[in-house]
Amino acid sequence: MLRIGVIGQSGKVDEETLRLAEEMGKEIASRKAIILTGGTNGVMEAASRGAKLAGGLVVGLLPGDESQVANEYVDIPITTGFGFDFRSMVLVHSSDAVVMIGGGVGTLVELSAAYMLHKPVIVLEPSSGWAKRVKDIAYEGLYLDHRRENYPHQLDFASTPKDAFDLILTRAKEVPSAHSTASDTSGDIYPNK
């Protein structure tokens, strides 16, 4: 089963970014994948709400030891016992692919970690924050590191949640660590059912 991490800022977020996050959550659930978020508010809550509305499974990887900090849409709250920084690493390591929606400095750290781990990374460009700016600072608009021998893969950019998930399926085929059954072109990640 494909596990998609959605990363983005907590706290106050503009309405368009929240709408995109909710639509991304719906897309993930409608494609029968599991959504993983940081489990709290902002982009994470909007993506969780979208997945829940589409009948999906929502996993929240939470900072600290208190499950009550999870947003109301989280089905499985996992307390990591870590602060936000290390919780983010658990989220990235647990994901087969990562979608960036908006984002502040914490999201930028998650993006960098996913890139270093050779995870497929999709940036939903119409959103705000670092997702809107990362292409401008990336090498050739695609790479987070100039050393192609260490990091030969690129960032991918999508303008819609559907396009983002289609890119996930394409990239998951290329990444041996991803739990991918993405060779089925129907977009259904359960080809044997």
Automatic annotation (TrEMBL):
<dbReference type="Pfam" id="PF18306">
    <property type="entry name" value="LDcluster4"/>
</dbReference>
<protein>
    <submittedName>
        <fullName>TIGR00725 family protein</fullName>
    </submittedName>
</protein>
<dbReference type="InterPro" id="IPR005268">
    <property type="entry name" value="CHP00725"/>
</dbReference>
<dbReference type="InterPro" id="IPR041164">
    <property type="entry name" value="LDcluster4"/>
</dbReference>
<dbReference type="InterPro" id="IPR052341">
    <property type="entry name" value="LOG_family_nucleotidases"/>
</dbReference>
